[in-house]
Structure formats: structure tokens, C-alpha cells
Amino acid sequence: MTGGGKIIGEYSKGKVDKLLTADAADSSRSQRIRHFLENMDAAILEANCEVIGRELPNLNRQSILRMAVRVAELRADYIRAGLSASEARHPDPKAVAELARLRSAYEEMLAVYEAAERVIERGYVKLE
After folding, report:
1. DSSP code of 1?
2. 123 Cβ contact partners less than 8 Å away, ≥ 6 residues apart
3. Three-state secondary-structure class, residue 61
4. Spatial contact of 106 and 75, defined as CB atoms under 8 Å apart
5. Cα(120)–Cα(94) distance, rounded to whole angstroms?
6. Segment 16-44 mean pLDDT
7. Whole-angstrom Cα distance, residue 128 to residue 118?
8. Average pLDDT value for the chain
9. Rounded distance, CA 120 to CA 98, Å?
10. pLDDT tens by residue, 55-109
């Protein structure tokens, strides 16, 4: 580089983006790749519908609502314990351990709920 921040050398801008390989720039190859990916998406959707439908036959409005309520209860338990622990400047080690246990339970159940939401959003289950 020179002192002005300019790059020394040549730069030639052509019609094809220089970051693409010749194969990737080939439109018929791009179409084949796009077609392949679309077919894979359809196959993955079908596989997820089959597996989740078979493995989780009780995944429905009631079970999702029950899980959402449990997540809310665990969140409340965690916050309640935090409020209690915050009464002392240096909480008892047992209170801190209990906070960690409650946080872990809450976060794990929240992750499960979010995974169930994704299953529903992606249409892997048929909800009645």
C-alpha cells in the first residue's frame, strides 16, 4: 500500500463477480443447485413430519399450553428465589445453588418450548 491508503496493482471489473468460481457463475449449474436445495427442503420437511408425527403423537394445543404454563411457573420460581436471595448482600451458598438449579430448570424448559414452537411454525405437526 502507498501512504494514501490506495492499493497498488490492477483491478479489472468484468461482468462476472470475481468471487464466484466459473462453475458457480454458470447459470445452468446454479439452477441445478437451486433445484437440489429445493428438493432437499421438501425431503427434510417430509422426514420431520413423519418422525415427529410418529414420535410425538400427543403434541397438540393442550400439551403445548401445559408446557407454556410450566415455563411460566419455573420463571416465577426463579425470580421469587432471586428476590429472596437479594435480601442479603452476600446470599447463603445454599440459596445461590438453589438459584442455579432453578435457572437451569427454567432455561431448559424454555428451550424445549421454543423447539416445540419451531416444529409447529415449520408445519411438522398437524394441529387440530
Report:
1. -
2. 45, 49
3. helix
4. yes
5. 39
6. 78
7. 17
8. 86
9. 33
10. 998 898 899 999 999 999 999 999 999 999 999 999 999 999 999 999 999 999 9
Contact 70, 84 (CB under 8 A): no
More confident residue, 1 or 87: 87
Which residue carries 421454543 as its cell?
Answer: 114
Q: Hey, what's the cell of 110?
A: 424454555
Domains of the chain, by residue range, sit at: 24-55, 58-128
Q: C-alpha distances in angstroms, 60 versus 30, 52, 63? A: 40, 12, 5
φ/ψ bin of 60: left (φ > 0), alpha (ψ from -120 to 50), beta (otherwise): beta
Q: Is the pLDDT of residue 8 over 90?
A: no
Amino acid identity for residue 38 in this structure: E
CB 120 within 8 A of CB 128: no
Sign of CA dihedral 111, 113, 119, 123: negative
Q: Count CB-CB contacts under 10 A for residue 75.
A: 17
Task: Check pLDDT > 90 for residue 9.
Answer: no
Nine cell digits for residue 27: 447459470
128 vs 97: which has the higher pLDDT: 97
